[in-house]
Amino acid sequence: MLDGATIAVTMPGLNVATTLPRTVEALPQGYADMILLADDGSTDDTVEVGTNLGVRVFSHSRNLGYGAGQKTTYREALRLGADVAVMVHPDYQYKPELMPVMASMVVHGGYDIVLASRMLDGGALGGGMPLWKLAANRFLTHVENALLGGHVSEYHTGYRAFSRRLLEELPMAELSNGFHFDTEVLALAILHRYKIGEISCPAHYFDGMQTMPADVGVRYGLGCLKAAGLGALHRLGVARPACYDLTGPKLDAWTEGVEAAAS
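Below the sequence we write its predicted structure tokens.
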């Protein structure tokens, strides 16, 4: 708990049995009221490892995608009374130690989204980010900002904190189940003028970490451009895509694929 606010750490994960303990152990003690993991059809010991760590595990009956995992954890965070949800990737790519700072920016700074950006300090290459990935990240972020009218340093960080208000109001059940779910959420926040904050987070690449295959990366990039393009149509009043309409289905409507829960 943070000054009376209930804090949930949320983790969408697939085959993270080897990195999950390291991630959970690195979380600062005394801040997270709950740790929620959406196991997205893992074939390793992710569920058993998470349960033994005291993590609340919600299992998908099959692999539904990164966005689907987020929907499940955010829905459960709301159901359990969280005021803030901080998504921490269980593959240990980001620094779990920053979680209280991000939650505090929501609680005390009035932000609806806080992004941990690997681009703010200019040290992404020093942290091991491949040059091609850095170039793609910067290119996509530049285009997305131009299309959406945003001023964000990185659209592609997976380390994010959310206010309860945003999680309740955005039509997240309508959004993609894939990786570009992140871009759609940020596009919604920009288009509807939610308050967005950023902090600097070091890039952290290491041997054995999960990486996105090249073909998936290409599809991801195209999905992000499509999401930003639809957002531009909404912004300019040319069209009103359903995914960017705040009257769309909310997280409490998300039920697909969740077959079991363990605590």
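The chain is about 35% helix and 15% strand.
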